[in-house]
Amino acid sequence: MRIPAGNYTFKQVSLKSNVHLEIEHDAVIEPSIENGAGSGKKNAQGKHFAIFNLTGDSAREPIENVSIRGVGGRYTVKVPVYEPGIIFCAFKHVRNFWVSDANIEKHLTKFACFQFGCGLQDKDGVWRPMKGTIADCNVTGAAYGYGLVQIQAGESVLFENLSGTGGVTLRIETGSKQMNDAQIGGIDRIYGKNIECTDGNAAVMISPHSMHNGVVAVDGVKSIGCGFGVRIEGGYIAKKYSNSGLTTGTFAPGGYVKNVKATFGMNAQLKQKHYGYMPPELVKFIKAESEDSESHRGPSMAAVFNSATDFKVEVENVTVSGFKYQKSDVITGERKKK
Predict the structure, then answer these.
(1) Residue 224: helix, strand or coil by DSSP?
(2) Domain limits at 173?
(3) How far apart are CA 311 and CA 247, in angstroms?
(4) Cα(103)–Cα(70) distance, rounded to whole angstroms?
(5) 338 in a domain, yes or no?
(6) Paired sense of beta strands 228-232 and 268-270, if any
(7) Per-residue pLDDT, 43
(8) pLDDT class for 335, splitting at 50, 70, 90?
(9) SS3 178
(10) End-to-end CA distance of the chain
(11) Who has greater pLDDT, 43 or 175?
């Protein structure tokens, strides 16, 4: 099915198996928001939603062989101010998928553009996204805690040629309360290639919470003016979890992040929990005002931050530019509790 050039509004479009959308590069897609929501008012009514759902009905009734691609170049997705949050594509019970060629314009809107979750009822069938690719996409205007991708559950998924301004371009964080309490979900064989972020939180973030995950591997990270090029957070048990038997999370041996290039800048998105890792010469440049009620703009801190002690993700071949005061390209420390 082809979507020609023009302006379109969509909401909760659920793809079925063997459906392939081709979107011409001059097409502009916006979410359909009722009741005046999206006007910029923080008290706008409504709930968060996805423009496209690649979720299936259940683990036993997944969707398979689906794609959303650009034709002749990248199409545009405009995400307005909307307090509950908007997702571009949501993934759950899906196998063999491809989404590419989107330029997404956000306005500090909640949730990542691509959100990966899992079914919690059982593990029969396709209970988490499997065998897929997200490629050649960009986001602008991302808030500190969000960005282009957040994957909480997935198996054998490739993220390639992804970039963003603000937020985290590739956030591999398995922090869902329901998932951690049930110990169902998590990720395995997640691959990133050529991941870039400008003036954001980090290009890549890896955090297991209390999930015991498989392998994650990223080759090619470029950070320009971000707080960190890469954040690797140690496992921990959040207060919101109710399962008393949880242990600190891990990633399986064999994972790595390599070929990291980080350039210093003065417009990174920073959170107070990391201020202690900033060289004292730079603290005075952190701005007092906050654009998203969560972070503050200020100087880049380091190329890589790694607080993991219960697992090891190898960090290889890090190069930096402009970090005048930071003594190490890779800094370590205890995980700061939320």
Answers:
(1) strand
(2) 2-332
(3) 13
(4) 10
(5) no
(6) unpaired
(7) 38
(8) low
(9) helix
(10) 45
(11) 175
**Is there a domain that residue 337 lies in?**
no
C-alpha distance from residue 146 to each of 28, 283, 316 (Å)? 22, 24, 26
Q: How confident is the model at residue 37 (pLDDT cuts 50, 70, 90)?
A: very low
State how far the Cα of 42 lies from the Cα of 186, in Å rounded to an integer: 33
Which token pair is 254? 């064999």
Write the CB contacts of 149 (distance below 8 Å, at least 6 apart in sequence): 112, 113, 114, 116, 134, 159, 162, 169, 170, 171
Tens of pLDDT along 287-333?
999 998 889 999 999 999 999 999 999 999 999 999 999 989 999 87
Rounded average pLDDT over 1-16: 96
User: Is residue 319 one of the residues assigned to a domain?
Assistant: yes
CA distance 81 to 143: 12
Alpha-carbon distance values, 45 to 143, 210, 335 (Å) = 21, 34, 36
Q: Decide if 216 is inside a domain.
A: yes
CATH assignment of the domain containing 53 = 2.160.20.10
Per the structure block, which two tokens stand in for 140?
Answer: 């602008």
Structure tokens at 99: 């989404």
Predicted TM-score of the model (pTM)? 0.94
Q: How many domains does the chain have?
A: 1
Backbone CA torsion sign across 52, 81, 267, 209: negative
pLDDT the model gives residue 126: 86
Amino acid at position 188, single letter: D
Strands 268-270 and 296-298: antiparallel
